[in-house]
Amino acid sequence: MTWRKSSFSGPGETNDCVELATAGGEIRLRESDAPADILTTTPGRLGTFIRAVKAGTLDRLGR
User: Fold this and answer.
1) pTM here?
2) d(C-alpha 8, C-alpha 3), whole Å
3) Which InterPro entries match (predicted)?
4) What are residue 37's phi and psi, to 5 degrees?
5) What is the per-residue pLDDT across 4-61, written as a single tens digit (0 to 9) for each?
6) Contact residues for 21 (Cβ-Cβ < 8 A; gap 6+)
7) Could you tell me the sign of the dihedral formed by the alpha carbons of 50, 52, 56, 58, in that order?
């Protein structure tokens, strides 16, 4: 599996960031500082999550 680093993380290996990979029609996400912890989702569900974040729908979840 080939992991891709976020373009917002900057150069070098010391920058902690989100990484993505695809496998079998699924998307896998991990933090570079905790590579053993992997979240698996589908493209549709990830798209729904990203749209909700951009719209601010999740801003008040913990309040």
Assistant:
1) 0.73
2) 15
3) DUF397
4) -90, 110
5) 987 777 666 666 788 999 999 999 999 888 889 999 999 999 999 999 999 999 888 7
6) 1, 2, 3, 4, 27, 28
7) negative
Write down the pLDDT at residue 61.
76
- The b/e string for 31-46 (b: 16+ C-beta within 10 A; e otherwise) is ebeeeeeeeeeeeeee
Dihedral class, residue 44 (left if φ above 0, else alpha if ψ from -120 to 50, else beta): alpha
Work out the number of other CB atoms within 10 angstroms of the CB of residue 27: 17
pLDDT of residue 12: 62
Query: What CA–CA distance (Å, rounded) separates 58 from 63?
Result: 10
- C-alpha neighbours within 13 Å on the C-beta side of residue 1: 16
